[in-house]
Every structure is written in structure tokens, then in C-alpha cells.
Amino acid sequence: MTTILIADACKPSLVMSSEVFKDKIPGSIIIVAVTGKQCLEILAKETPDMCVVDFDLPDADGIALIHAMRKTYHGPILLTAYPDANVDDAVKNDLFAFNDAGAWISKPIKFDVLSDKIDRFLTDKHRLGKRFETSLDTLLVGKGAGRGKRAPKVTGRIVNISLGGACVELDGPMKFKNGEELTIAVQLPTPGQVGKKVVRKPPSEDDGSDSKIKGVIAWVDKKSTKIGFRFSRLSDSQKRSLEELLKGSSTL
To answer: How many domains does the chain have?
Structure first.
């Protein structure tokens, strides 16, 4: 049974969102919150399959609420908001960090737009938390110790990946600490390359910006031969490439 949490103080939006989910996923359970406080209280007891959250609840700032939700909830979150350049900028520059919010759609909510997002996150089992098997060569580049110091780097292989991060097996020694900032260079396949054999050159520091992903070390295994890498931010094109890659990969 699919459970959806909708946090919105606007009754028309609540009704429309609920109807879309019930139409797309018959039998789905809709949990409603009209304030940020209620939303967090529900998440303390429930783990919905997806959350739809209004950016401007009466008692909560959208960004602060999403960050608070992420302390206990790790599923997909979809924001709703009235069109505004400030909202768009806030979501892209803050909430896309570590995919805190999967996307946002403008209000008033349109059936087709929300329906498409449901397909993306639920119907096709496209979940932010899932990891998928893969094999992508990568180059990990750390921060330089100071002016004139060369940044440490080591090659490796991404063995599983999600929209939130990746597990990387290292080819050589390099000391890592949890929370350390890194950049990985990896050539993500374009949508037309998914499922095909494509000859790719080894990743390099000189690769374009779309081949570089910034993030932090989430964990290091005891032998320091494998790390968990949490993405800090993905560009729109990187998201699209990863989405296409994940659709054709085997889930773990």
C-alpha cells in the first residue's frame, strides 16, 4: 500500500494533489498536514513513500522545513510553490544539495505535471534512496593542503550509485576522513548511450563541469579501499543522465 504525506494549508491544492495520487495509484493512503509542525510530528511516527510539501506553510520556511524533515525521512520530497524567481533559486541552490528536494512544481497544481512526477518517483520505482549496480571509472580529487600544494587524487570505480551518492572502490591508497570534501570526475552516459557499449576515455581533472560532481565522504571502510560518497549538488543535466542510467540498471 502506497502512503503519501501532503503538507499544504491550501484546501484546493490538497484536494487536487490527493485526487491525482488516488487516480494514479488506486488504494493509496493520503496523510494530510496543514503546518510544518504537523508534518514533522507525522514523520516522527510514519514513513510515507513520498512527501508533497508546500514551500510556504503558515508556520515554516520551506528550506528550513525540508532540512528538518531530512533528519528522519529519506524518501522523495516534491515541493509545490507559486512561480517565483526566489523560490526557483532557493530550490536549485540549496534544496538540490544531496537531493533534499527531488523537484518543485508550480501552483496551482496541474494534474499532468504532478502525474509526471508520480511516474518519476513512484510508479517506475524511481526512488532517491535506492542504489543501483554500475561500473564507472572515476577520479577522486581532494582539496589541496595550502597554496602551492597539489590536491591529492586517486582513481577508482563507482560500483553502485543513486541520485544521492555513490560507493567507490579505490585503486590505490589515499587517506580519507568522514565529512571530507571531494570532487569526483566521471563520464556519465548521455541518454542515447544508455544500454550501449561506448568507449570512454579515462576521467580527468580537465573534463568539463558536467563530468565533475562535488560531495563529501559519508563513510570509509576499515581497509580504506572503499568509500561512500554523498553528492552535494547535481546539475540538471547530471540528474537527467543519472536518471537514464538508473532506469537501465539493476537495483541492489
So the answer is: 2
